[in-house]
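Comment on the following before class.
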Amino acid sequence: MAQFSMEIMRLTGSVLRGNQQLWDYGVLDHDEEGKKFKPIDNAAQASAFLSVLDRTVGGEEGAIIPHGLEDALRHITQLAPKLEKDVRFQRLLTLSRR
């Protein structure tokens, strides 16, 4: 949890640029089944991750949308279904479908 919190603090201070992927957020881990969001495993962490995504993914024209954003949002709703109605979630979901 401490590592995840430190990563949140790092990311909220700066917007990632370039070829942005969820790897840049430090939340993906490879295992024998493929990509997994291992550090995010409860509703509180899902809410914190949504906040980080909201602060770091711009909505202006030409903004870089991280590869795998839709998978991250799906993971968030599995852990905290109520977040799907959050305006931040809806904004990110719209961006992920561009």
